[in-house]
Amino acid sequence: MLRFKSLGSGSTGNATLVEVTSRRPLRLLVDCGLGLKQLSVRLAGAGLADEDIDAIFITHEHSDHIGCARQFSRRHGVPVWMSSGTYEGIGSPDFGGLLHTARDGEAIDLGDLQIMPFTVPHDAREPLQLSCTDGAAKLGILTDLGHATAHLLAHLEHCNALLLECNHDSDLLAQSRYPPFLKRRVGGKYGHLSNHAAGAIAQSLAHEGLKHLVTAHLSEQNNRPELAYQAMADALGSMTEVTIADAGSGTRWLSV
Question: How much of the chain, in percent, has pLDDT values that exceed 90?
């Protein structure tokens, strides 16, 4: 069985748990954008201890995604995967032999869980998002990008669950107190997805087997949960359950 849970998603920190229990529990942490103490608290809230994490995948070097990854990895002996660009972006620190290089289109075999990284357009050195499968179900994780590409859409075909960035409402962003350069950055082709853009992605990936869609990385200032929810409901109709990932508490466990 494949299940997942956001531990929190937003500009203050992002982390997602992916778990398979085919033979023994195997748990992947996608991004680690929290402090050590807060990560432990949220893992405990998910019924887990720090020692229960088997692997970490880092999507890119921004602080709300890298967080305590190196400290956690070295403290608990957990292997970490990230791109070469991401590694350079954090200053090429020593991971004590626990670092592995992730590359676009090269599958990573963790035993009962296989993950497939793919490139996305975002203002980072070499950002990667990913899909995860236990051979029976497929989860797609897609945050921190400015626009959709045919490449990433192809990687996310036939997902049974999708964690999708719905960062901002375009009107709220335009009316916000953000300075003009930041509005251009957030709303640009290498920034973050609007609700409308996320809805178009969701609609293009919709199929009868898409059981869950989680809206992620909502801006506290430039979005509202009800707006993100409505955009996904309009795109998907009633066939897919839509869940909002909260910045502080994430989501409940969702089975795929």
Answer: 97
